[in-house]
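Dear colleague,

Thank you for sharing your sequence with our group. We've completed the structure prediction you requested, and as agreed, I am returning the results in plain text so they can be pasted directly into your records. Please verify that the sequence below matches your submission; if there's any discrepancy, let me know and we will rerun it promptly.
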Amino acid sequence: EGREKNFGPQHPDTLKSVSNLGTLLKAQGDYEGAEALYRRALEGREKNFGPQHPDTLKSVSNLGTLLKAQGDYEGAEALYRRALEGREKNFGPQHPDTLKSVSNLGTLLKAQGDYEGAEALYRRALEGREKNFGPQHPDTLKSVSNLGTLLRAQGDYGGAETLYRRALEGNEKTLGPYHPLTLRSVSELGNIFCARREFERAEELYRRSLEGHEKSLGATHPDTLGDIQNLGMALSGYGDYEGGEALFRRALEGLGKALGPEHPKTLNVANNLGILLRKKRDYEGALALFRRTLEGYENALGRDHPSTLDSVRSLSLLLKAQGDFTEAESLMRRALNGYEQSLGSLHPHTLGSVNNLGVFLNATGRRVEAVDILRHYAEVSPFSFDAVAYNLARYECIEGNLEEAKRVLAAHLENHPEKKEQALAQKDFAAIHNWIAETTFP
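Please find the predicted structure tokens below.
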């Protein structure tokens, strides 16, 4: 206000205040207010300095980040590419501002499902920041965390955990335990445990992140609501469906207000709530949520985005449970084909879809087809996905292919000898129970 009175609305100092206020509103979750300010700052800087000035490009980047947060990936990408091109020309490929644009574009490509493109940009940003700042600088650690998130999305949980632990340790030392970047690392490490079904360890980390975000950002900020959703995942993971549902509904309502009902983050919560309702056999409630999320993802992200395929998979399992086998099979095959094309044959989502389809084919009297598809992927994945190998061994045994069943099951139990008792209790393995009992699996 003071700068507007002293200098006028288009003065560089006034526009700097406009931009700063936009950043504050964005941090508070007021995206509409932030966008108006960012656009005003960009327009003023273009007039004052031209389209390639560093301050103009900063406004371009800020607006791109806001559009991404609002789910406008196409608009964000155009702005991020413009900022990157301008900064490379102005400063060179290794300048901190250039590397920030590299990282921003990588984050956007990941959100769009282009993991290969994102990885190249993330590694470029990490290498540049390590050279410029050293291994413990917050910007370097942010790149470490970004790369970890990408590896998790690609199914490399071990690689992701290593990076997350490095980021968490570094952020705690340099920024303290309650800094947003530290809390992000805490939550991300929780995501790894959740993906591994270590829900109690995940819950501990999610509660720590939630407490920190509530104190620093408030109860209705999107980051706080993201923690609430994560905590709901952990609770529902170990069977506390009532607690999980309450948290999902709280996150869904909050994100719907903050970001809108069609934002990808809102849709993600709706999909997770639908999964929980399916587990509770509230099929009507789950069906409404799944169809809503699928339509929303298709409109926002396209038919082949991994998040869209997650929704396809969820809907297929519900329809199977309801006895709508025709649409269920069509959606299972769509999910499998989409995951394989976008994520590859070895990704857990792909192999999970293989297993879903194999179980479905067996349940509908088409065991030979089930064996064929499971056998193909078990060979591709070298038994890296437990359910594929385990169910293949079951079906081979039922079909009388006992030596093949033993071979597949042995590979599974060598990795998981603790599951020997489960295999001994499995009726489908009746013909090889003696072999299981007498064999030692390291």
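Summary note from our side: The chain has a mean pLDDT of 91.

Kind regards,
the structure core
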